[in-house]
Amino acid sequence: MAERRTYSVVLEMENANFIDWGEVSVGLNALAREIASVSEAGLAKPTVIISHAGRSSDGDELRSSFEAEAPRLGQVADLVFAACADGRYYDLKNNGVLFTEADIVVFVDSDSVPEPGWLSGLLTPFKQPETVCVNGYTYLLHDDFFSRTFALLWFFPLAEGDKRFAAKRALNANNNAFRRTWIASHPFPPHNGFKVSCTLTMHELWREGHKIVNTDARAYHYSPRGWRFFFWRALVTGRDADRKFVELHAPGRVQRIVKSFTRWGTMSWRTLRRVVNLAPQTGMPAWQIPFAAIVGLAFYTLAFLGHFSLAAGLVRDEPEIVPDYVVHS
To answer: Known Gene3D superfamilies for this protein (predicted)?
Structure first.
């Protein structure tokens, strides 16, 4: 790796509100391991910007938690705690970019755990001067029926045996890197959607003629938990699908309503196909496969209801925020 290249890591702390510190610390210690590895290869000590949704006064408490849970991280990197009061997911990422002047900005989430070689995998493609964005490989961790089912129907590819889906994976806001000059001038756009801004950023890259480099920089994401989250996330997935359709195609209301039905059919068929063909890759017993299919179809039926209700104007388009009943479920 070229020694003159510098990088910073932006770690958003919104998702850390929904999992325990025992899990967060696994990711922090993995991040420290990855930074140490590339530092041994010649890269300068980076800055890790912890962008959080609290107040500036929360920085000291967060620093104490980091020192207790992942003491090595503060040794291999300079830690900066950047408050963005009440910031949503993409607000925190944009906020973190403001605190670095490094050549490359790496994004990772507080509930993601990098695998060995992850950081090198994200940084190496930037040896090519034309590289603007590198997209890593995120998959859902799974160890029971519910998490295996989520892994099959989620928008991340499986860890193994999912090459077709992995080859065309979308931009992962929780596992990617940009040249700072580009992402600083093209921040994730503000939007009411829950996970819409990364799609808009991906299309902005394409419009400018930039190729997104997909690399095997692997990290796993903790599986969503609880039926309350399942219900809420399905409805949000549908509403976000309508928002993306509006942003990218500017359709009329009738087209949006029609799209909600066609997407319901497409995603239901995709779910059945993936569950039947790929369930063995997750270690799911054969007798659970029909139940996983039912859960998957239920998810995208709820998504259809969310999609249709927004497309038809039955609900208002308001900023998506994880409600308390989900956080504490």
So the answer is: Spore Coat Polysaccharide Biosynthesis Protein SpsA, Chain A
Are 66 and 50 in contact, with CB atoms under 8 Å apart?
yes
- The closest alpha carbon to 241, from 294, 302, 290, 187, belongs to 302
- Ranges of each domain in the chain: 7-221, 227-327
Task: Assign 223 a pLDDT band (cuts: 50, 70, 90).
Answer: confident
pLDDT digits (tens, 9 = 90+) for 90-117: 999 999 999 999 999 999 998 899 999 9
Strand (E) or helix (H) holding 64: helix 59-69
* CATH superfamily assigned to domain 7-221: Spore Coat Polysaccharide Biosynthesis Protein SpsA; Chain A (3.90.550.10)
Tell me how far CA of residue 310 lies from CA of 249, 316, 318, in angstroms.
16, 7, 10
Q: What is the maximal distance between C-alpha atoms in the chain?
A: 58
Q: What is the pLDDT of residues 148-161, one digit of tens each?
A: 999 999 989 999 88
